[in-house]
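Sample intake sheet
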Amino acid sequence: MQTTHRVQHPSAVRRRTVRSAWAFVLAGVTAAVMTGCGFQIEEALCGGGEYPVLAVGSTGGDCVPNGEQPPAGYARYPEGKAAEHVGDKWDTYWSTHTLDEHGNVVDAPDAG
């Protein structure tokens, strides 16, 4: 009886290994997205080259170009308490709080 041994070229084995690795990664990403786990996209409050400011006396806000002062009626967030992304800790906090005309943190008048 004659036995045939098939010898595979190393590059063919390498291609198959790379394809298998990519398939594994793609399957993991797909599973994470479909289950809602693993990935969270954060939406920035302001674009590049801007910083967020808070409307004095309300929960509104705006974005100001870096290097410029906030317009009348707006103030910088207190140090370490700036909201950066939609729904982050400070964005949620500032939806029920604001600054008064003296820079004091107070409950927002429109925070139902």
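Comment: Helices lie at 10-35, 89-93. DSSP finds two helices and five strands in the chain.
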